[in-house]
Amino acid sequence: MKNKLLFGMAVLGIILGFYSAYVYSQRPPAQAPVFNPASNPYEKGIYANGIIESLQSHGENINIYPEVSGPITHVMVAEGDKVHQGDVLLMIDDSVQRATVAQQEAQAQAAGALLDELKAQPRPENLQIAKAQVELATATLKSAKDQLAKQQRASDLAPGAVSIDALDNARNAESIAEQNLGVVQSQYELTKAGAWIYDIKNQQNQHEALTKAYLASTALLGKYTLRAPVDGVILSIGAAQGTYVSPQGAYGSYTQGFGPLIVMGSPQDTLEVRCYVDEILVSRLPKPEEMTATMSIPGTDVKIPLTFERMQPYVSPKIELSNQRLERVDVRVLPVIFRFSKPKDLQLYPGQLVDVYIGKK
Fold it and tell me: What residue ranges define each of the domains in the chain, with the CATH number in brackets?
């Protein structure tokens, strides 16, 4: 009985083994792909990696860096906002520069006031005093002359009536009065002539120098307020209120490097694709007027026709298609730019990587 049981269990195990082998040898049918991979729609199409950018007449997206350093005090816009040229984007602490401007403005005003004072000379009050001194000196000279004449007539009529010392004193008094009159007359003419032309020129140069320093400081003060250089859309803001920024930009917590403070693009109705064509395929590119292209969006079956925009006629080392664009490789590529209208039912943003096939019309 025991042997029969063991034999039955062995047979059952063999049957289960064959059944398991059969079951596990069956391959389940492959699932349909969520989306079809990018395919070449052209007979001799050229494949290229591409990155979506804002449409620009030249260059890439607009990277805004501050020209001064300091902590951010106000951020006036948000990512995705549409702005117009001249709109305030953000403000950097300008308290020190504002005080410098006020100081240099006061210095320029003081120099201007002194220049006006020199140009306004002679002052009427000073001229009146100088004229009165001339009149007094004239009267003093007349009195000295009269006194000398009296002494001289008395000496002529009665020799010895007037001492020689008295005559000498009268003559000296006349000479002193005459010289004093000459001094005050010269002083009157100097006062009447006003400020010396060289003093005016020197003060004018001082005023111009201080005014230009004030204007330069005012212009620098304006750099603490970042404004939109053109109409466009705010794509990204690299810092928040309180962040310290410099002409190098803002330090990224995630990238561990410096980047632009604000990235702007053109309005999103029309975008462009920057394609990087491998140098070994450049010779197969059609002429610009014959060039056409199709863009495939990864993760979708959407294919968007592209219109040739321009070409950068300079083959350069390929760089990683990332925001940092730092990694250089041995491959060299030719940038070719196409434009397209943004589909209304599809969300596309600058910075997305796409697949592009370039063909001939």
Answer: 46-55+267-360 (2.40.30.170), 62-91+226-259 (2.40.50.100), 122-194 (1.20.58)
